[in-house]
Amino acid sequence: MNRKKKSIFGMKRKSKIPFTVPIIVVDSASSSSLTSESLVAKTSTYCSIPINSEPKVDIIEETDVVEELAQDKDVSDIPECRSALRRNSISLPNLDDLELNLLQNYPRSVSEEEETQIMVNIESDASDDDFIAKPRAPLRNYRRKSVTSPMIKMLKPNGDDDDRSNSPANSITSINSLASLLREKMHVFPGVLKKKRPHDYKIRACVAFLFLTIIFLVTLAYVLYQQKVLQRAYFEKIKLNNVARLIEIYNMEGFNVIRGRLGVTMNYKQAHSCMPFDERNDGSICLEWMDRARLYLQHYNMNSEVRCYNLQWFSLSNNTYPTDCFDLSPGTEHWYGGGQTSESAWPLERGLHAFEPFITGRIDEHEWGNVLRRFFISSKGTAILIDNETPLYVSVSNERGRELCLQGRYDDFAFVNRQHPLPHLNYSVCTGPGMTRLHSFMTEKSLWDGLKKEEINIIYSLLTEPLWEITTATKEEFTEGAVANYTDDVIALGFLKQGHVLINEFWQKQIGDFAVDTERFPSLEETITIMHRRGFRIVFSIQPYISTESESFAHAVKNRYLISERFSDRRIPALARYKSLESAGVLDITYNRTVPWLVDKLRAVMNKYKFDAYYLDLGVAYNMPHYYQCEKPLINPDHYKTQFINSIQGAVNIFGVNSAIEMPRAPSFVSLPQFESSWDGLQRVIPTILTYGLIGYPFLIPGAVGGDYEAPGWWSTANFTSDADVLLPDKELYVRWLQLATFLPVIRFTHLPSKYGDDKVLEMARILTLLRQQTVTPYLKKYANEALDSGLPLIRPLWMLEPNDPACHIVADEFSVGEDLIVAPVLYSGARQREVYLPAGVWKDGIDGSLRKGNRWIHDYKVEDNQVAYFEKMPDNTRF
């Protein structure tokens, strides 16, 4: 058992000694006669100290007895010593006298250097009986002196004088007291902790962090290297990772303009080169994913500035729908086009909807509106054009960030007629020098080609004169007298031009008769003659539907003029519903005998009554019978309306159409969808007309001022003012709608402003009519000529003026007439101010005539209920 002793000099010395020192037990009776000589004699008797032995080294405190031994006897001469078992402590009578005696007899010649080299390691392996030869008085209770960790003492820095806290002099123990011993240990313990050297945790943590960082960097470098190895460059401007199917396309300047994921529905990663018999000789790249799909990648130049890349997917399995998704992440770029969405989103990424067939519909029931084109364009100067034969599904998803996804999929309605045995997806991605220039390249040019002078005059007349649409609550109320009275009211206003009068489908007794109902219109020929003399132009609305109650229905069934039911006899017509029609057949325009029969009917009516043109109310794709089957297969239900327009446009005059997927030949206009008579309906007008103009329809007919009333649910929720004959929209809504319509290509009325019986409404209508004639109409004519030449829209988004201005890309409640007039109407109930953004340039305020600098927002711009905010572009050198 190792023990520690204190030097007789009251000092602690640490030294290593390769020998052991015995423990001498002294009887209390003989302690008074103990001298240093007798103590040395006892030590010689019991042990010999080996000098060359290598016992376990320990650090202890030398006792005064050991130091006396070291002076009286040379320990190097002791051969070996066995240390006897000792007790934990000794307690001697007259111990202070003994220490004083030893101190006085201690030789002064011993050097300090020799003292510090002494180290005692006490090992006891003898029993107490070896040392006790005779009866002795009982020993006092042993007291263990304070202990300091040997290792800590070895490492203790110089100058540390805290050792006194561990000395016996500071002990607080008392004899025969266990509690005192515990208190002593508790008193010593904090000092021991102080002297412990803290472990180098910071160094170890730093090394561990560096190690983990190196592992991470090495792993990252490996992953990036593998991706780089897998990524190949095609046609200089395309980078495609064949495994992850990630594509990046760069423009001529080397900037990345579009990112996408290809084949996102495939769970097979490895791409292979196509077999030789699947390769093409047109320079395209062919890649195949085993039993999933095959991809052809090709490039072509539209001109010197526009480069396009064509991607064609062909599925190799019925369960594989080729699907590609392109990034729409907010803040990076903005996308536009396609058509009106259910959210009327502007830009496109503000909307969100799942995969739906890309066919025309009603926005209150379907995802897409009544006018579409397979064309999308981004603010980075990238455009996507999808082939018309692709069975196209489109989504704006948010599963992996906002994405525009294109999918090829057949179904049992929209794309039931397969152009290929398995699903396919065919589209092109084009890049150009900028958004506006790219859009200009992608629009249809030379719309004026083949136009006659009178046809151009029709365009001008629509831009300068109103369109009057006569509607009644029921067919029975729609009579010759109602038409005459309506035109009389228009003339009575005095400040509105006559314009075109649109007579809806109720001019027939039954829809599909293609003959005037002589009971309700007994002298229509004479009435039309009078209206012509007053300056009106008359337009009849027709539909491709034949009511089952019409006299023409039986004849059409007999001669197979109607679309038939799929999986049934060709003589069984497929029935549909449309507007007021509960049951009707649909003319099969693909049957070669149908068009001549229809044209003869239309010409006969026009020749008899001498009206000016027809308006084609074709409906949307979902108005077709679900299981339709034509004589010749259609690509999709929308293909029907394109064939219908093209079949009769050369035979009779076409004033406009209410649904399209291709721009009809001028002077035909395309109608916006009908809007709910509410503030929400008013707010949808601007995004819709901007989108339609952007996708290639410059000549547009907006909805009626105040909204439309087709859906019965709107009647009960809108705020109406009762008139003797009709229900009128809310007065404020009507005025704000009229302010907006003043700046649109065509201003369309169903309700005359005089019906409100309010002088303020009439005065507002008079002021706006004068504004349109003096300010708006010249700009509309100017940009109509430009549209005929370049295909650019009359009503344009602000980014067409400043494509590099980020603010212009997100403004959805302003528009410009060409490049010279910016309009910011009020679109919210009760609003008397709004935010206005002006692009770069100098603009003249239309309300107070002041000049305003562009490229900034005008906050809280004041607009009273009888005012509309508009700004005219001034020359760049204009000074304030």
From TrEMBL:
CDD domains: GH31_NET37. The keyword Transmembrane helix applies. The chain crosses the membrane at residues 203-225. One of its GO terms (molecular function) is hydrolase activity, hydrolyzing O-glycosyl compounds. Residues 791-869 form the Glycosyl hydrolase family 31 C-terminal domain. Residues 505-632, 676-751 form the Glycoside hydrolase family 31 TIM barrel domain. Belongs to the glycosyl hydrolase 31 family. This is Myogenesis-regulating glycosidase. It comes from Pyrocoelia pectoralis. The lineage of its organism: Eukaryota, Metazoa, Ecdysozoa, Arthropoda, Hexapoda.
